[in-house]
Amino acid sequence: MASIQHRRALAQGLHRPDGADVAAITQRLLAVQAQDYRQAKLAVRARTAGLTAADVDAAMDDRTVVVSWFNRGTLHLVHRDDHAWLLGLTAPTHERPLLKRLGDFDVGADLADTLVDRIVTVLAQDGPLDRRTLAERLEAARRRGEGLSVVHALGLSGARGLTVRGPVVDGQQRYALTRDWLGTEPPAPLQGAERDLALAELARRYLRGHGPAADRDLAKWAGLPLRDARAGLSAIAGELVPTDGDLVALRGEAAEIEAAPSRLPARLLPMWDEMTVGYRDRALLLRAGDEHRFANRNGIVPAIVLHDGRAVGGWSLARAKGVTTATAEPWDDGGFGRSVGRAVTAECRDVTRFEG
């Protein structure tokens, strides 16, 4: 029987399924953390073969995928078909924190609404626009210097379904009105039977791209109360099989595992990758003695070298004369070992190729 971490790596597509592209990987994972868009693109690279960063930009430009505020009130890359229902399910839980953050900048609820209205007006007239240009158009941003209040106002507009991050121009994401970019109206918060169906779909899709997992893993990942995670899992109970302790997996997963590689080559996973943020804790990801690698980083989740589902090192990027170079460091004094080292070297080269 494959280990839990090996099965999770397969669920996440780290065996690079044949034909996987930006749309397929995004749908598989449902939501890819993307407060740093470059890291989200590198997460796609780790799960595909032959794509480039420009291909992810192209999927943004042709409206296949978008970035907006979903789980945990954090920016995520999602497929356009998942935007409305996932937002309608998760957004109500993080509007209040966004308003609180605006309050920290002396922006009360009324002024926040005014900022959102002005964002909509400016984007309707001149959008899509990058954040700097948009901030320059808003009076409240100028008095704050760096426009931090605008960042949270944009978060509020995204949580309300009014805006998304759409096209990429000169490497910069631009904000667009949802109705203009996706041709849909802002989704209302889901209620009643519609919400119950969305919770079931959330549980199904989460396990599809992250399982085996537990109800608390789902709750933390989605930023929803534990009772919601349990309701979603209960709704699809007939599709589940117990795995280990309180972990469950989708029925039929065994056939896919049997067809997948028994061992996975090393992969370079970016900061905030779904393997590191997709679960309640990292106990299964980290070897004994490596817990400090993730401690006291002020919210930064480091990039890791993954070998067969376990973190065995870290890596970083440097750019000089227009060329990106990836450098990996093992966490063991003895190094990566010959076979893992070859795979890591190939991955470092692939990052350079991917970023072009």
Key phrases:
single chain, 356 residues, alpha+beta, 2 domains, 4-stranded antiparallel sheet, 3-stranded antiparallel sheet, 17 helices, 17% strand, AlkZ-like
Could you write a compact summary of the structure shown?
The chain has 356 residues and is of the alpha+beta class. The protein has helices at 4-11, 22-29, 37-45, 53-61, 80-90, 95-103, 109-126, 131-136, 139-142, 148-159, 178-181, 192-210, 215-222, 226-235, 253-259, 274-277, 338-355, and strands spanning 32-33, 65-69, 75-79, 163-169, 172-177, 240-244, 247-250, 267-269, 304-307, 310-320, 323-330.
Characterize the biggest β-sheet: 4 strands, antiparallel
Please bin the fraction of helical residues.
40-55%
Oligomeric assembly: single chain
Let me know the average pLDDT.
91
The parts where pLDDT drops under 50 for at least 5 residues are none
* Amino-to-carboxy terminus distance: 39 Å
Helix-strand topology string: HHEHHEEHHHHHHEEHHHHEEHEHEEEH
Going across the biggest sheet, name each strand in turn.
8-9-10-11
Q: How much β-strand is present in the residues?
A: 15-25%
Protein name: Winged helix DNA-binding domain-containing protein
Pfam families: AlkZ-like (PF06224)
Organism: Paraconexibacter algicola
Walk me through what this model shows:
This is Winged helix DNA-binding domain-containing protein. Strand 9 (304-307) and strand 10 form a beta hairpin. The protein has a four-stranded antiparallel sheet with strand order 8-9-10-11, with helices on one face. Strands 1-3-2 form a three-stranded antiparallel sheet. A two-stranded antiparallel ribbon has the order 4-5. It has two domains: 1-263, no CATH class; 267-355, no CATH class. It is globular, with a radius of gyration of 21 Å. It contains 17 helices and eleven strands. The longest helix is centred in the middle third of the chain and has 19 residues, at 192-210. The protein is an alpha+beta fold.
